[in-house]
Batch of 4 targets.
Target 1
Amino acid sequence: MDILACPIDKHHPLELLVFEEKEEIVEGLIICPKCLRWYPIRDEIPEMLPDELRKESEDLPFLKRWKKKIPERILLNGKPFNLKEK
């Protein structure tokens, strides 16, 4: 986390939320507090892709699955996808 920056606006530091952890973080979320972009961690892999490479069909189910642990600012205003109108 010390070396990660948002791939969109290059902001550092990023926020880390851990949802499931074993020896490594299995599932979690990396958040850019500046632009409100969020990046899922799935199967121990942070997926820090630009918006055009993200898939709404994969990201929205992730948000819905963990919505009780995700800050409201991300659920309602997160980029590139959020649950505001879903």
Target 2
Amino acid sequence: MTRSLGELIYTPDRASGEAISKVESHTPRIEAPDKVRAGEEFEVRVTVGPHPNTVQHSIRYVELYFEEEGRGFNPIHIATVRLEPEYAEPKLTFTLRLKKSGVLYAVEYCSLHGLWEARKEVRVE
């Protein structure tokens, strides 16, 4: 059975079986304004957890993407932050500047429980 990578990414609405018990501690949380002004800087905060931070079980990276309204090819890769177990916590802040409305996607990788995704719409005025 071959599946697309997207089918292997957990989200709160697609988690089933054992993954349901991991939703709270693994789904990234995106904090960003609902509306921003075109071209003006704003902060986006992505956090995961509470979550263990050991060599055997930790969040290894967080990626941030933006699906821009009306763009031919999406998403736009904003950043990938790699985290070192025992040293770095998955609490990240990004400064963005958008020209068009769209959807932010945060994807995190847990060394034991795979890929998890969250999304947040941001309107540009």
Target 3
Amino acid sequence: MSTQDWPDLAKELSALVGQVRGGIPEVMKGFSAMAKAAGADGVLDAKTKELVALGISIAVRCDGCIAFHTRSARDLKATREEILEVIGMAIYMGGGPSLMYAALALEAYDQHMAAKPAE
């Protein structure tokens, strides 16, 4: 087990991203609009899109992305079994390094499930 507290990492990064948002508000408005549009229900529902984002997070080895996308997957009622299937695809696409991050993503999801959801 890693020593990372994934829900805490998401909170810490949210505060730091807030500082970036304050420094470059127009860029962040554009990024937020893109995130909203990309994540909106379409042919794929929001949960499926969030699971895709988690797979990419694992494959590109982004701790912060894993923290946010596992939390969002939990909020969208993703199951542990769905997370594991995403992990399988990420390992297939990213090889050994993705396997290491897949283990971290599963731990992050489990920690978010154990934590109280955001109000």
Target 4
Amino acid sequence: MVGHASKVLQELDAGIFRCCVTSPPYWGLRDYGIANQIGAEPDIRSYIANLLAVFREVRRVLADDGTLWLNLGDCYTSGDRKWRDSDKKNPARAMHYRPATPPGLKPKDLIGIPWRVAFALQDDGWYLRSDVIWHKPNCQPESVKDRPTRAHEYVFLFSKSEKYYYNHDAIKENANGNGIQRNRRTVWSINTEAYPGAHFATFPSKLVEPCIMAGSEPLDSVLDPFFGSGTVGEVCIKHHRRFVGIELKKEYAALARDRLGWEK
């Protein structure tokens, strides 16, 4: 489905999804060239407010025992630089705008966006159940010399209700390689994945998989309101889940259709 997530979600019936697995555009890091795109707001408060509007609708369309798995990365203040050039390794980093340093922060500050969003969702009624560290062993190199290179992002587990569906057996892990199964820990070491034709950050399927396996059963419906290249759909097909994906940019929706083998 092509369109703004908050508007498209309003057209869907309540309570039809068992879980939502998604990664919205990060604030101030990409320019998708579309008016009113989430992530291009002039300030953090507007970004968070726009995400809250989307996830209120997500909560409405989730079943009462449903969960939300939300991947977000952090960023630093721009130091009031107004644009950013591309490079050969990462052409998607080019931007025609850069948001100003938020009030109360200084140039070079780490903003803490994932936790700001998580706390806002918690205040809005979601149950914040877990923070997962996505450790990226093959993280992108950085030229910085005054801080460590970032090699992680967050995946937050939220629930709509106090009691919710969570299949811990489906995502158990080996303990120290000895074959003994244990409850999944909160640090997941998963390499990033490139997808041919996608000049933007893509969800690794191995990051999506445990979220879907723990948060749904076969034939359940899964939602991704920021569908991108369609990784959530691909994992759902593999594990016999139904799904709905919403994507703002027509070119990315076409890429997802090709990936999933759908006709335009």
